[in-house]
Write a structure and sequence with these properties.
mainly alpha; Hypothetical Protein Ta1238, Chain: A; 5 helices; 2 strands; 56% helix
Length: 183
């Protein structure tokens, strides 16, 4: 029988890919948790997005977020040497996708409120959590050496999720809802 728990975290600590254990409320644990939450939300977005192209992109993002989490875990002093890392072009890949999706959208002249279709709503939620994850990693960077590629990638993710949400609303025939002060 497989055991799905260790009990090692009962004292408020967790393991990393580095030496030793860290407190579960440390900046590193918070950043890793935010990345894990974001990856889970991307999974929910995949399950609720009927567009194959967007789903394909989201699956790549999930894989890259898993790498981000591993890099963070290894960022502690004496951390493990990883056989992989987020590639330097990862943010550029997102920029290309943002531009390509943007070409299919009308010019954005007003702020939009998050929501619309179910898929767009989950993509907006992913955008908000991506911003929080980015803030957590920036806070962590004051203590740990963080790969700049990782921070750049996280910065582009929120833009990607925003444009993907607008794209899904357009594709699903749902008009964007604007805050009243736009009028």
């Amino acid at each position: 029988m497989t055991v799905y728990y260790t009990g090692k975290g009962d004292e408020g600590e967790t393991g990393t890919m580095g030496k030793g254990r860290i407190k579960k409320d440390s900046k590193l644990a918070v950043a890793m948790g935010d990345i894990d939450e974001l990856n889970s939300i991307v999974g929910v977005a995949i399950a609720n997005t009927p567009d194959e192209r967007i789903n394909s992109l989201l699956k790549v993002i999930q894989d890259r977020l898993f790498m981000v989490g591993a890099e963070l875990s290894a960022s502690v002093e004496g951390g493990a040497k990883l056989k992989f890392a987020l590639k330097d072009g990862s943010a550029k890949d997102l920029e290309r996708e943002i531009e390509e999706l943007g070409l299919r959208l009308p010019e954005l002249k007003k702020f939009v409120l998050p929501g619309g279709s179910l898929s767009a709503s989950y993509l907006h939620l992913a955008r908000a959590v991506a911003r929080r994850a980015e803030r957590s990693v920036v806070a962590l960077s004051s203590e740990n050496r963080i790969n700049p590629t990782l921070m750049q990638y996280l910065n582009r993710l929120s833009s990607f999720f925003f444009v993907a949400a607008l794209y899904m609303n357009k594709k699903e025939g749902i008009e964007e809802f604007n805050p009243t002060y736009n009028d």
